[in-house]
Amino acid sequence: MKNLLKNFLIFFVVFILIASLFSLYGNGKSKPEKIGLETFIKQINNEEVSQIVVRGNKLEITLKDGKQEVVKKEGGQTLIEMLTDLGVNQDKITNINIEVKEDEGVSFWLGILLPFLLPFILVGTFIYFMIKSVQGANTRAMMFGKSQAKEFRGDTKNKVTFKDVAGAKEAKEELKEVVEFLKNPKKFTNLGARIPKGVLLLGSPGTGKTLLARAVAGEADVPFFHISGSEFVEMFVGVGASRVRDLFKKAKKNAPSIIFIDEIDAVGRRRGAGLGGSHDEREQTLNQILVEMDGFDPHTNVIVMAATNRPDVLDPALLRPGRFDRQVVLENPDIKDREEILKVHARQKPLAKDVSLRRIAERTPGFSGADLANVLNEGALLAARKNKKLIEMEDLFEAIEKVMLGPERKSRIITPKEKKITAYHEAGHAIVAHFLPHTDPVQKVSIIARGQAGGYTLKVPTEDRRLHSKTEFIEEISVLLGGYLAEKEVFNEVTTGATSDLRRATNLARRLVTDYGMSDKLGPRTFGEKEEIIFLGREIHEQRDYSEKVAELIDEEVSNFINISKEKALQILKNKRKVLEEVVKSLLEKETLEKEDFEKIVGSKPKNKDEQKSEKDKKEN
Ligand code: ADP
Ligand code: MG
Ligand code: ZN
User: Is 476 a catalytic residue?
Assistant: First the structure.
């Protein structure tokens, strides 16, 4: 409709232009006088005429004194014939300069007809465009079954290559091989190797799956068809399957080529698991993908790549050999990779001399590649806001917290009483975290609201670790309860501020029992089969695979863990009450305590046995 309006407007403007041109043309020359034949003959006989231009039946006369006149003559007669008939002397005629010109008919008729025709032309054009746009919609409807896959070739302007992907070494190796397959298939087939058909990229959001796939496209220099899983799923049944067919047809025609299906879990969910209306459609689409992949003969040089962050919900059939038999796992980067990723994204950003990307990497365990890119971007924005020319370390530290916890909400008004409660709450977390032996050191305590939280205590692990012990979990729960317990100790009352702490503590305690087998009473087994049921959006449904009696036991054990943690935290809060008060005082004054300020009050973090031992070992060696 927008287009239609645009076309109409253009037409309208052109019309106005033409119309004004015509009127200019008309006014520009003074109109020649119309005269009768008699006057004309008289003028010839008086030798007043210097020139006659014949245009069809119109005679344009120029008199010797420059005056212009127009005379109509009868059709079917030449000028000379007419003049002789009217008895004009031959000598008088020869003295006149006579010119015969093309009939001015076109512009003449146009001049007459245009005023009448214009409305018709206008309406006609309008209807024409109308019909055309309707037809367009129709053909678009017919195109539904066509895949909307975007093809991009290596030579696009913002081409991504493996250089733009930091870290992820194994994944890159694996994919380099895929690129090799496409460039040089003989090398592999000569040795009898079967070229993989499908490569599945697995990893949590932001780990760089899409980025890596685009890098493959950039490196491989072959047509690369990119489509997102959700694009298969439309309102109309059967569209998905036909899109898949079309996509594969295109890819085969352009072989060697790569198909990339992003977010494949949108269609590749375990079949038969859904209750939602569209799952039939999804199944058909998935089936079609499987059929197409099986249909490749080994010499078709097409590789299918797919990405998902939910491998657990994928249909097992997708993972069978001969389909997505290569699986590349992307994980959140470790400290070295984090530094590399930061370097990649710092390329076009002016950093101040004091910036150490290594220190940023240290402070960002658990961040994904996307988070890190975001940190640098937020840092740049913060620096710009302060009118700086360079991005400084403080901007980046601030950015880390912003990415982690949401923006600061300094303007939120809280009463002095609320402020005091928040201070005790956060100091409670911080003190418990500080004095327990297996927790991460406190990096920052603040009572400035951020995102959802009224205040926050930031702990940062000293190293990347994958395994966590029961002791660590118990202490973690103690820290979570620290805020709640401090409030209770001091005010003999608790507030709603602890809700999310309590929920997290409870969830963690529950996982200890049901997932990690850390309860002695219940033993080394897991409880509950997690299954996803898609119904009205997403919902994780837990199926109970244990009896009512065991359920009671689980509840007991969860409470037990929480109690143990609570006692630990309470003990610290009671023993260190004085220090707590000092931290609170300082918090109320400064609102934010950095690690150094905090440790000035509470002393440095006591070392646990493992740390003491490893230090002793170091000294002995
Ligand atoms: P996913 O598809 O896994 O959810 P993306 O590939 O979309 O994640 O990554 C989002 C952004 O994060 C990328 O555009 C890139 O800026 C950044 N990023 C993620 N991983 C890396 C990496 N290894 N190296 C450089 N940048 C990365
Ligand atoms: Mg992605
Ligand atoms: Zn809290």
Answer: no
Measured CA to CA, the distance from residue 227 to residue 243 in angstroms comes to 10
Residues in the chain: 621
Nearest to 122 by CA among 2, 3, 16, 1: 16
Give the distance (Å) from ligand 1 centre to CA of residue 435: 38
User: Do the strands 442-446 and 456-459 form a parallel or antiparallel pair, or are they unpaired?
Assistant: antiparallel
Indicate whether 563 pLDDT > 50. Answer: yes
216 CB less than 6 Å from ligand 1? no
The 3-state DSSP class for residue 331 equals: coil
* Nearest C-alpha neighbor of 554 from the set 519, 505, 596, 597: 519
Ligand 2 center to residue 204 CA distance, Å? 9
Asked if the model's pLDDT at residue 537 lies above 50, the reply is: no
CB atoms within 10 A of CB 387: 6
Confidence at residue 535, expressed as pLDDT on a 0 to 100 scale: 42
- The amino acid that residue 113 corresponds to is L
Give yes or no for a contact between 148 and 223, defined as CB atoms under 8 angstroms apart. Answer: no
Output phi, psi for 99, to 5 deg: -125, 135
Is pLDDT at 155 greater than 60 in this prediction?
no
Residue tagged 């005679």 (tokens): 59
Distance between Cα 196 and ligand 1 center (Å): 25
Q: Do the beta carbons of residue 506 and residue 473 sit within 8 Å?
A: no
Q: What residue owns the CA closest to ligand 1's atom 7?
A: 210
pLDDT tens figures, 391-411? 999 999 989 988 888 877 777
Smallest CA-to-CA distance from 584 within 602, 565, 606, 605 is with 602
Q: Parallel, antiparallel, or unpaired: how do β-strands 49-55 and 58-63 relate?
A: antiparallel
Q: Look at residue 75 and give its three-state secondary structure.
A: coil
Contact 257, 226 (CB under 8 A): no
Q: Tokens in use for 501?
A: 């702490």
Here the tokens at position 258 are 């790569």
* From 231, 263, 398, 426, active-site residue: 426
Does pLDDT of 194 surpass 70? yes
Lowest mean pLDDT among 134-143, 301-310, 350-359, 378-387: 134-143
- Protein residue whose Cα sits closest to atom 27 of ligand 1: 369
Ligand 1, atom 5: closest residue by C-alpha: 208
Assess whether the C-beta atom of 168 lies below 6 angstroms from ligand 1.
yes
* Mutational pocket test of ligand 1: of 207, 260, 367, the residue with most ligand atoms within 8 Å of the beta carbon: 207
φ, ψ dihedrals at 97, nearest 5° = -85, 110
Residue pair 441/395 in contact by the 8 Å Cβ criterion: no
Domains of the chain: 2-105 (3.30.720.210), 150-330 (3.40.50.300), 335-404 (1.10.8.60), 416-618 (1.20.58.760)
Look up residue 426 and give its DSSP letter: H
pLDDT score, position 618: 67
Tokens of 361: 């990497």
Distance separating alpha carbons of residues 364 and 356, to the nearest angstrom: 13
Q: 457 near 422, Cβ under 8 Å?
A: no
Instruction: Assess contact for 399 and 376: CB atoms under 8 A.
Output: yes
Does the C-beta of 166 come closer than 6 Å to ligand 1? yes
Our answer on whether the CB atom of 203 is closer than 6 Å to any ligand 1 atom is yes
d(CA 322, CA 296) in angstroms, rounded, equals: 10
**Higher-confidence residue: 434 or 285?**
434
